[in-house]
Amino acid sequence: MAYKEYLVKRKKGAKEILLAALIYVVALFLSFICVMFVPGIGLLLSVGCFYGSYWLTSKLNREFEYTFTEDAVDIDVIFNASRRKRLISFYMKDAQIIAPVSNGEFGRFSKMDYKEIDATTHRKDANVYFAAVEKNGKFLVKFEPPVTALQELRKFAPSKVVID
User: Fold this and answer.
1) For the chain, which residues make up each domain, given as ranges?
2) What is the pLDDT of residues 59-102, one digit of tens each?
3) What is the DSSP letter of 118?
4) Fewer CB within 10 Å, N- or C-terminus of the chain?
């Protein structure tokens, strides 16, 4: 495997839908206040409120891109199919372990002082793995890599990759 990319889309749950509704209700309330009590520019401020609420709710639409290049793993989040942000990038030498979340090691690492990064779809049937990474800090990354990518990573660090 020289270079592989995988894209997974996070499922919107009730929490995200309620948060989006709350953001728009607050924007409506602020718009009403602006129009009623700020004559002249109240309408412009109200347009700004709705633009801000659109911008905030667009951050709730997330996709994750996993890029595997030899022994390197890059995980990016893509907001609203337009803005990208690198969550983490690491080499296999920086990983302590890559294993299924159902593995007992996950509980051990989650009790340690690791910052958790969740790059999963939140689907119930997802095959979620974790990577304990020590690079510029300690990170516990949850993600959903395909088995073929795990098999390739295992070639570079057989003792660190546990495939379910």
Assistant:
1) 14-58
2) 999 999 999 998 899 999 999 988 999 999 999 999 999 999 99
3) E
4) C
Q: Which residues contact 47 (CB under 8 A, 6 or more apart)?
A: none
Q: Can you tell me the distance from the alpha carbon of 11 to that of 119, in angstroms, rounded to the nearest whole number?
A: 11
Helix ranges, the chain (H): 14-37, 42-58, 104-110, 147-156
Is the distance from CB of 67 to CB of 120 less than 8 angstroms?
no
Classify 82 as helix, strand or coil: coil
Could you identify the residue written with the tokens 């659109």?
54
Q: What is the pTM of this model?
A: 0.84
Q: Which two tokens stand for residue 89?
A: 């990038």
Point out which residues pair with 89 in neighbouring strands: 74
Q: How far is it, in rounded angstroms, from Cα 108 to Cα 104?
A: 7
Angle between helices 42-58 and 14-37 (to 10 degrees): 170
**Tell me, what's the pLDDT at 115?**
94
pLDDT digits (tens, 9 = 90+) for 22-40: 999 999 999 999 999 888 8
